[in-house]
Design a protein that fits this description.
Glutathione S-transferase Yfyf (Class Pi), Chain A, domain 2, alpha+beta, Glutaredoxin, single chain, 10 helices, 5-stranded mixed β-sheet, 2 domains, globular, two-stranded antiparallel sheet
């Protein structure tokens, strides 16, 4: 996903200006946070790095500090990431593997707004010039890019007890593949475009806004039905927490920001609440910094700040106008 589409994930203060529909002005303000660059959860390393306890953010650094210029680790997994839904899925799994098996990893923050992901050293690892990417220093510095491929790689090599995955010859493995493909072909692209046209595009195009927010709602309806009698998406019985859930969680965790009313999808909301309680998830979404765009902070900000509440109400009115203009009616599937 492009830097433009994910501009909201930047951990610094920005203000996005929009054009007006007849009587609607949409702006979005964001909370300034430090630009963390390097952090490690390694037990031992041959390079210098911070080792802050898991629940404590890395020390604040200057926004203008130098961006990474290459790999820094010698062992374990090295994650190159940023605070986006796709970035979070990998940091969450790495935190789960660290907690379950003691698997070491190091991360570097790749500021996509500075185009660090386009530098030659990065594109040698990820030819697509996008985050996340990993390098496995324990397997000959093997590089993997794309979230779906990374989750599969990490569980194949470092989840021997299938705590977060399924045996490859099982039907559950096939079910997991299907729902992960559904996310990559549906929720991610559609919700990403919803964010772009609803939040970031300078020209507010009603057709595009209702098209992509509406399709995202449709997909959430599919997920809500799947979770109607399950705790997790894949696995026997009521399901098992796995990379299928991790894969979707990052996107659903910014649903409110994307214009999605979670009240329409109670099973998705309950599933989000369950996952958000996991300690490894809490640590994973704090890499590279705490996001103010996840559902909890967004809703709390509206409750505590009258101006943010007013802006949210104005945005909702605008969204509804876009839907009404083109006769949008929610339906799923």
């Amino acid at each position: 996903m492009s830097a433009t589409t994910l501009r909201c994930m930047l951990p610094r203060s920005i203000r996005i200006l929009s054009t007006r529909l007849p009587s609607r002005s949409l702006t979005a303000s964001y909370i300034k946070q430090p630009n963390y660059t390097i952090f490690s959860y390694c037990k031992a390393a041959s390079f210098s790095t911070s080792r802050t306890p898991p629940h404590t953010p890395p020390p604040e650094q200057d926004d203008e500090m130098a961006e990474p210029t290459g790999l820094i680790a010698k062992s374990g997994i090295e994650l190159l990431t940023f605070g986006t839904p796709n970035g979070h899925k990998v940091s969450i799994l790495l935190e789960e593997l660290r907690e379950a098996y003691g698997k070491e990893y190091t991360w570097q923050s790749i500021n996509i707004m500075k185009n660090t992901q386009k530098e030659p050293w990065f594109t040698a690892i990820c030819p697509n010039g996008r985050i996340p990417a990993i390098v496995d220093h324990d397997r000959g510095d093997f590089a993997v890019f794309e979230g779906l491929a990374i989750l599969g790689y990490l569980t194949r090599h470092y989840d021997p007890e299938h705590k977060f995955s399924f045996p490859v010859d099982s039907d559950d493995y096939s079910v997991a593949e299907q729902w992960m493909a559904w996310q990559h072909g549906g929720v991610g692209p559609m919700q990403g475009q919803a964010n772009h046209f609803f939040r970031f595009a300078k020209e507010k195009i009603p057709y595009a806004i209702q098209r992509y927010v509406g399709e995202t709602e449709r997909l959430y309806g599919v997920l809500d039905k799947r979770l109607s009698d399950r705790d997790y998406i894949a696995g026997p019985g009521r399901g098992k927490y796995s990379i299928v859930d991790i894969n979707l969680f990052g996107w659903c965790n910014i649903a409110v920001f994307s214009g999605i009313d979670l009240g329409m999808f109670p099973n998705v909301k309950a599933w989000l609440d369950r996952i958000n309680e996991r300690p490894a998830v809490k640590r994973g979404v704090a890499i590279p910094s705490e996001s103010q765009l996840t559902n909890g902070p967004v809703l709390r900000a509206r409750e505590q700040d009258p101006e943010k509440k007013r802006e949210a109400e104005e945005q909702l009115r605008f969204l509804n106008e876009c839907k009404e203009k083109y006769g949008y009616k929610y339906a799923s599937p």
